[in-house]
Amino acid sequence: MASSHIILPKEDDVEVEGDHDSPATPARPYQAQEEAGPAGKKPALPFSATCVRISRDSYPNLRALRNASSATLHDEDAAFVKLEEGDFGYVLDDVQHLTDYLPDLPTFPNPLQDHPAYSTVKQYFVNADDTVPEKVVVQKNSPRGVHFRRAGPRQRVYFEPEDVKACIVTCGGLCPGLNTVIRELVCGLSHMYHVNDIFGIQNGYKGFYSSNYLPMTAKSVNDIHKRGGTVLGSSRGGHDTKKIVDNIQDRGINQVYIIGGDGTQKGAYEIFKEIRRRGLKVAVAGIPKTIDNDIAVIDKSFGFDTAVEEAQRAINAAHVEASSAENGIGLVKLMGRYSGFIAMYATLASRDVDCCLIPESPFYLEGEGGLLEYIDRRLKENNHMVIVVAEGAGQDLIAQSIPVADQQDASGNKLLLDVGLWLTHKIKDYCKSKKMEMTIKYIDPTYMIRAIPSNASDNVYCTLLAHSAIHGAMAGYSFTVGMVNGRHAYIPFHRVTSTRNKVRITDRMWARLLSSTNQPSFLSQKDIDAARAADKAANSKENGHGGKKQSASVLANDCRLPIHPLLQRFTEIRQMKVPAGTVSLARRYLRSSLSTIPLLNIVPCQTSRRSCMNHDPLSSYGSAAKGVGVTFFFFLLLQVLCMSLSALEQQVYHGVLISSSLMPLRFCMEKGSDDGVEAPSAASTGGVPPSASPDVDNTRTQDSDNNANETGAAAGDLEQQANQEAEAAGKAHGACGIETQAEEKPAPGTNAPWTPATSERDVAPTPQTGQRNARAAETEPDVETVTAGSGCTTPPPPAAHDSEGSDTHSADGHGSPLHGQKPPRQAGGTASTSKSRLLPFRSFSWDKKAANKPGGADGAASPERRSKAAGEDGAVEHKEKGKERRKRFWK
Ligand SMILES: Nc1ncnc2c1ncn2[C@@H]1O[C@H](COP(=O)(O)OP(=O)(O)OP(=O)(O)O)[C@@H](O)[C@H]1O
Ligand SMILES: O=P(O)(O)OC[C@H]1O[C@](O)(CO)[C@@H](O)[C@@H]1O
Predict the structure, then answer these.
(1) Is 560 a pocket residue for ligand 2 (Cβ < 6 Å)?
(2) Which ligand 2 atom minimizes the distance to the CA of 450?
(3) Ligand 2 within 6 A of CB of 340
(4) Does the ipTM exceed 0.95?
(5) Under DSSP, is residue 685 helix (H, G, I), strand (E, B) or coil?
(6) Which residues in 843-873 are b (16+ Cβ under 10 Å) and which e?
């Protein structure tokens, strides 16, 4: 079990959030406090937490995740990984900071605090509680563990603007938007921070030691975003860490901005490590670039949208050519060395494509179900067809028919054989053998696509990336910057370089593509069975050895199972054993499951696009919420039910949930229902033992995770009910069963310090959900656990449901007299005021239980409610309703 505790700050330690985009954003109240603080007090570090949320040790994936963080690192590097495990199953994995190896660095006032555009930004997060707390003290081996404080405003920077000497380098292949990033780095540094010493390194990494540095000013880069390519030049190979860092040191450079793909980011990490080894005060900021969109962790790389858009022109041309000839075939090759994202999105966008081939999805030519047979059929049906092929597709097939020695580029990347040309010949040969007249036009727009300037949306994206990089570097961090679920984040280098982003053909997007093109999956049942078996074997192996890379067969298998992910989830969940236990673990399941819901799939694109464009989560929230409506509720319900038992990780980067699950959940909360996440634990509420907090307010602030063992006898009752309900739910809904087990009760007499929160703003933060709920508990009226159907994941129950046991509990706003308004606080008592943060689950099983139990689901229910719920009619009616609801749902 997690051992560290999270100690809440005193009230006066809690500050207003700063700009999410800007770790160095000022916030005057904090500054005042900081300045007024005790002499010699070290200013708090700018907020840096990069979190990886994990669940408990009991889950195999927990081990996998924890190991994964260091699996790809050498021992020496792993020692610098800053992992801290908190009580909520969080592991914080900080990005590197200058003070990690230069502890006594002075800080300086942030020039941004006088910037009118920035100082007005007081709240940048969707909610205060979405932030990860700022770590202020780390006491290793201390019984108290790690101390946290809310991510406060960052008014200090680690560089004085006049001392900054920044350089920018671009490496690897070209990509639309490179010039925009360069421009925005130069302009951002000079306009926001008044930095004037900015240099361009020419022709990639080797330019550090083989070319002159190019002075850059806002004026000199004014127009460059209108041109493709990079004004600095780029190259592959030539990364000599020692020489590069020698030059950085000799020239007094203290901020290095490195734009490039995964190879480049690996190089950036090497540079950073050498800088750290030498103890130089130099910040290294990586800005990930690749047209292939194959960089891990981030939502997408800049230039990708532009590439997809430009690819349309080639596909249109191919379509025109093909449809203007008898048995015409238009073949378009697009970039994508290891990942077929451009091909997939361009195909989906076009709707003219009959077949899309990508590296992740193996295909074969001859025989039943093969590509040639499909071409034959399609030509007979339609007289023409368009094929899009990613350059990395079918490389194994080509190698079989044209044996050539493996060749590599200067960076060691494998040089690809031309799949387009090879396919053209194969198709021609096939048609000839069938004596079929045909015309094939092969179009290779790859470099034309890569060389254009970025489109409007990529321009905005590039600007935000550049600005984020600047803020992070000024605040003393070294990181790769990126958008993660629509939020800008700082990511440790090793996380983006340890793996590649690939099209998952078990995912919905590929399923959409298949249904759009109607192409065969190129899989035989035998393939699928073999792949499944391999997958199973490899998965169990992986769980045992956490963090090991998937074997080739698993990866292949991954690509070979076009099973809908939801179906897969159902299967997994059905297979899970469900021991009896407490609500608490069920909550954890829910929590971890919420974190793994691929909600990006169901949140309309507009949501993330908007947050990208506006960089304003608040606005994107509102509009997303309005737009999604009933469908959204339904999907969310489905997702939560399916995923609720999967114990996986949630990654949080710089306070940004990688899982976008917060969005819909928050949406629900704003609708007046529960947000579906759990409240903070005792530790998060200041470690106050529940039994020692008879005050109802304190009780309300308890973590729902700990309700069962925190609210005395009444809570025991709740716990019992919860066990029963969990079991009942497991039985009633095989696919939705909750695996539960007895939870450890906190040691009696736990006397961790506690500071009572007094107002909504003052409630001390805890990581993620904990924070949210601590605050919610303080500010929201009591919400009974019997608020069936209130969760966003549960369809609103019929009105009769309320009459069963929630007539006084309907803070959820469903069919209740209290709908749309906050119910009054209860004047005392504890058991009846336990907050449900588990509505998707609880509502499902709890109300069921409530019908059979005198007093409904609430052990301390009012006499009216008890009589109602005890009534047989009510129970029968409730069961009927439940059945009906389930029927509707399963339909
Ligand atoms: N493991 C590594 N360690 C240090 N430097 C590296 C490493 N891999 C690549 N590099 C350097 O990074 C630079 C760019 O790498 P590469 O040619 O692979 O392009 P990339 O950054 O992956 O971009 P693209 O997506 O366009 O291929 C090269 O100068 C190369 O020497
Ligand atoms: O620029 P080069 O060396 O021809 O490399 C081309 C490769 O670069 C990329 O554009 C980006 O990695 C790939 O799509 C492509 O395979």
Answers:
(1) no
(2) 10
(3) no
(4) yes
(5) coil
(6) bbbbbbbbbbbebbbbbbbbeebbebbbeee
What predicted TM-score, i.e. pTM, was given to this entire model? 0.59
Q: Per-residue confidence at 516, pLDDT binned at 50, 70, 90?
A: very high
The alpha-helical segments, DSSP class H, found in 260-370 are: 262-278, 304-323, 341-350
CA 167 to chain CA mean position, Å: 30
State yes or no: 670 annotated in a binding site: no
CB 85 within 8 A of CB 4: yes
> Among this protein's residues, is 292 annotated catalytic?
yes
What is the residue with the minimal CA distance to atom 10 of ligand 2? 173
CA of 454 to the centre of ligand 2 (A): 17
What residues are in contact with ligand 1 under a 6 Å CB criterion? 171-173, 204-205, 236-239, 260-264, 266-267, 270, 290, 411, 413
Is the CB of 229 within 6 Å of ligand 2? no
Ligand 1 centre distance from Cα of residue 235 (Å): 9
DSSP 290-310: -TT--BSSSS--BTHHHHHHH
b/e for 392-403, b at 16 or more Cβ within 10 A?
bbbbebbeeeee
Considering every ligand atom shown, identify the ligand nearest to the alpha carbon of residue 205 and give its number. Answer: 1
Is residue 289 within 8 A of residue 480, CB to CB? The reply is no
Structure tokens at 848: 């069921």
Q: Which of 93, 197, 292, 299 is catalytic?
A: 292
Amino acid at 694: P
Per-residue pLDDT tens digits for 348-402: 999 999 999 999 999 999 988 899 999 999 999 999 999 999 999 999 999 888 8
> Which element (helix H / strand E) includes 285?
strand 283-288
DSSP secondary structure, 691-749, as one string: GG--SHHHHHTS-GGGHHHHSHHHHHHHHHHHHHHHHHHHHH-GGG-----PPPPPPTT
Rounded Cα gap, residues 651 and 66, in angstroms: 12
> Which tokens go with 172?
């690897």
What SS3 state is found at 791?
A: coil
Amino acid letter, 534? A
Residue 448 counted as an annotated binding residue: yes
